[in-house]
Amino acid sequence: MNDATVENRLRGLETFAQNTAVDLADIKATQRGHTATLADHTTTLAEHTETLADHTTILTGHTETLAEHTTILTGHTETLAEHTTILTGHTETLAEHTTILTGHTETLAEHTTILTGHTETLAEHTATLADHTETLAEHTATLAGHTETLAGHTVELAEIKATQAQHTDAIGGLQRSVDTLAREADARHTATTAMLRALLDRH
């Protein structure tokens, strides 16, 4: 091998060594970057793992809440069905009440007509009552006159009763005198009768 060939090979080796050194430096730099990135990714992965655990816990809670809400929703659905049935019944009842109300409205119209007639009759009766009131006033005045006359008669009757009482007392006195005389006469008659019986018994 001549010197030129050796020199060419040496230059080639130097160039290869330089290129290899550059590549190695690049590889080391890239490795340091990858190591830093890996560290970042490891930290991020740890954070994500914790976040995933938190999210899993939250998801479990949400799943339980969803189950509770599903149960509540089922209850609400059943309640809604019941309320719908009740509402249907109320709607039917409302229709019946509307029909009844219509009948009552017609009856009210009839009663209003009757009331109008009664009002007119009441007006007539009021006029008649006014006439009767005037007549009553006249009768009251006449009654007042009769009352005064009755008062006079009452006084006269009192006087007559007083006189009658006096007569009653006098009659009572006379009756007592008659009773006394009768008792005395009976006593005398009894004595005479006893005397006559005694005489008869002797004979």
Count of domain modules: 1
- Class derived from helix and strand content: mainly alpha
- Tally the helices: what do you get? 1
Compute the average pLDDT: 85
Helical residues, percent: over 70%
Task: Give the termini separation.
Answer: 238 Å
Question: Could you state the order of secondary-structure elements as H and E?
Answer: H
Q: What is the β-strand count?
A: 0
Low-confidence stretches: none
Summarize the structure.
By secondary structure, the chain is mainly alpha-helical. Helix content is 99%, strand content 0%.
Describe this structure in words.
This is Chromosome segregation ATPase. It comes from Nocardia transvalensis. It is a single chain. The protein has one domain. Helix content is 99%, strand content 0%. The protein is built from one helix and no strands. The radius of gyration is 72 Å and the shape is rod-shaped. The model has no long low-confidence stretch (mean pLDDT 85).
Write the layout of secondary structure elements.
Layout: H1 3-202
Question: What labels would you give this structure?
Answer:
203 residues; rod-shaped; Chromosome segregation ATPase; mainly alpha; 1 helix; single chain
